[in-house]
């Protein structure tokens, strides 16, 4: 169950980030995210939200309670309807954050996107020790109750790479050549 949920989460996140971070016109890798039944709703790009925010009375009461308990300092929260629940979008400590809840209001996931300076040192060390000549361009941190995964976009003079760091191990997801 844990591996399946993590695989669905990563697949959906890659679908979210692939459009907004399509870095090159050519690619020397054909790896793409597979569609899954677990969707983050109508997101078409990372950071782009579905149209039509919800009124607060349209959001599950349990989701609202869980959100207020877990994110006390969230300001300017906007709620959106997903195919399988709700998402709250807000900015906290200069970090864009999306929190997903199922239809019953149970917490599912949190996605935070930020720059290299907010990346934990140990994760940054794993990436930079392998790709010291590339710059960390963007980080998506995906949390569930059971896992924490970092999807990191790297830029070099002639290449873009997307790597996943989970449980101290790094995997290359995409490798694009600039033209």
Q: What would your notes on this structure say?
A:
There is one protein chain. 22% of the residues lie in helices and 38% in strands. Strands 1-9-8-7-6-5-4-3-2 form a 9-stranded antiparallel beta sheet. It has helices at residues 2-20, 61-70, 121-130, and strands at 26-27, 75-82, 85-92, 95-102, 107-114, 135-143, 148-155, 159-166, 169-177. It is built from 3 helices and 9 strands, in the order αβαββββαββββ. β2 and β3 (85-92) form a beta hairpin. It has one domain (2-177): Nuclear Transport Factor 2, Chain: A. The radius of gyration is 17 Å and the shape is elongated. By secondary structure, the protein is of the alpha+beta class.
Keyword list:
alpha+beta; Nuclear Transport Factor 2, Chain: A
What string, H for helix and E for strand, traces the elements in order? HEHEEEEHEEEE
State the total count of DSSP E strands: 9
Number of helices: 3
Mean pLDDT: 77
Shape: elongated
Overall CATH class: Alpha Beta
| Shape-level CATH architecture | Roll
């Amino acid at each position: 169950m844990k591996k399946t949920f993590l695989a669905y989460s990563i697949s959906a996140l890659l679908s979210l980030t692939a459009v907004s971070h399509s870095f090159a016109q050519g690619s020397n890798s054909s790896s793409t995210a597979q569609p899954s039944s677990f969707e983050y709703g109508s997101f078409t790009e990372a950071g782009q939200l579905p149209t039509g925010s919800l009124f607060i009375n349209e959001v599950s009461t349990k989701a609202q309670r869980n959100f207020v308990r877990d994110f006390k300092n969230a300001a300017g929260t906007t709620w959106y309807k997903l195919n399988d629940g709700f998402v709250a979008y807000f900015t906290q400590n200069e970090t864009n954050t999306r929190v997903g809840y199922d239809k019953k209001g149970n917490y599912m996931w949190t996605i935070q996107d930020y720059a290299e300076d907010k990346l934990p040192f140990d994760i940054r060390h794993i990436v930079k020790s392998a790709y010291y000549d590339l710059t960390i361009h963007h980080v998506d941190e995906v949390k569930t109750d059971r896992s924490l995964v970092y999807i990191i976009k790297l830029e070099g003079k002639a290449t873009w790479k997307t790597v996943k760091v989970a449980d101290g191990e790094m995997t290359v997801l995409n490798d694009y050549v600039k033209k």
